[in-house]
Design brief:
Layout (H helix, E strand, L loop, with lengths): L2 H17 L14 E5 L2 H11 L3 E5 L14 H9 L2 E4 L9 H8 L4 E3 L27 H18 L4 H26 L8 E6 L3 H7 L2 E6 L9 H13 L4 E5 L5 H12 L5 E6 L14 H15 L16
Parallel strand pairs: 1-2, 1-3, 3-4, 5-6, 7-8
């Protein structure tokens, strides 16, 4: 059995273990602040926004770290076991953490924020062996659904604070609606012939579908896959034939393949530049605007549009991007 299939089965077990309501007779009192532990930054951010001051929210996987390859440390497992609630992305994003999540799910409620997304909305690239693409946060409208799942889950865990969680969700949802519209409007300013997004790995397919831009990733959906010479040559040919003006590196993925594209295009007489660094599987530095989910997407949209000939404010939707 292929390792990807094994990991998917393992993660399915986590969902099954956590799907049943907890035995209230064994649940601790819902004292504030209770403790929530999350995996990736994008999950941590929306959980923090919805939990507010009712919980202390901790993220395990920080800036510039690739969750596809991340393995839980002993301290991570200790943090997970000490949590009152655990949230992760799911869809095999944190595949190497499957064993840790299963172990924790026997003792603590563990939830995949993506588990309630209708399967018809998920992308299933053929090269990912029939499994869904996990990068759903790249479509803001889908991540809004994940935020709603968090609010519902916390309301069930802490029933006395349901209205507070729903109020926080409404505030976040309004901001996400504005972000989604900004992305649609801004990407649409890129001339159609130049609307080609070439990145280090295939993390932007939901982004491409939602905001009408063609996406080409050098590596596959998971960074465990390696790009071969044929892949590089194929993309170089696309860059040259379509006169693509810029390609993008990612904060959590090596830039060696992107540099190979630049060299390959140059050898064929076409100069391509690096249009900027995008946040794909990890957000920006903690404490910065780019270190939030909204800031991450704002940065990506603004960077892509400006590099490919579109129109966008230099400092983004809210004027908060770093200069």
């Amino acid at each position: 059995m292929h390792i990807g299939t094994c990991l998917q089965m393992a993660l399915s077990i986590v969902v099954l273990v956590t799907a049943a309501p907890a035995d209230e007779s064994k649940s601790p009192p819902r004292r504030a602040p209770y403790r929530i532990v999350c995996t990736v930054g994008m999950v941590t951010d929306i959980v923090h926004r919805i939990a507010g001051d009712r919980a202390r929210v901790e993220g395990l996987i920080g800036e510039g770290v690739d969750p596809h390859l991340y393995q839980a440390t002993r301290s991570d497992i200790a943090s997970l076991l000490a949590a009152d609630v655990v949230f992760y992305n799911g869809l095999m994003l944190e595949g190497k953490m499957a064993d840790a999540l299963i172990k924790v799910a026997r003792k603590r409620p563990v939830y995949a924020v993506t588990e309630l997304i209708d399967e018809s909305l998920l992308l299933e690239p053929p090269e990912f062996e029939g499994h869904s693409d996990p990068h759903v946060w790249m479509d803001v409208s889908l991540w809004k659904r994940c935020a709603a799942m968090v609010a519902r889950t916390l309301g069930e865990f802490d029933p006395g604070s349901v209205e507070r969680y729903q109020g926080n969700l409404r505030t976040l949802a309004e901001e996400l609606d504005r972000l989604h519209e900004y992305a649609r409007r801004t990407i649409a300013t890129i001339p159609r012939a130049h609307r080609v997004l070439v990145t280090a790995h295939d993390a932007f397919n939901y982004f491409g579908r939602a905001y009408d831009i063609e996406v080409i990733g050098i590596q596959g959906i998971s960074t465990e896959s390696e790009a071969g010479i044929a892949d590089i040559n194929r993309i170089v040919a696309t860059l040259v034939d379509r006169k693509v003006r810029a390609v993008f590196v990612e904060s959590s993925v090596s830039d060696k393949n992107v540099k190979a594209l630049l060299e390959g295009a140059a050898s064929r007489g076409h100069q391509v530049r690096i249009g900027g660094t995008l946040y794909s599987d990890a957000m920006g530095k903690a404490g910065t605007y780019e270190g939030t989910y909204v800031g991450m997407i704002d940065h990506n949209v603004t960077t892509i549009a400006r590099a490919l000939g579109g129109e966008a404010p230099a400092r983004g939707m809210q004027g908060k991007l770093s200069e």
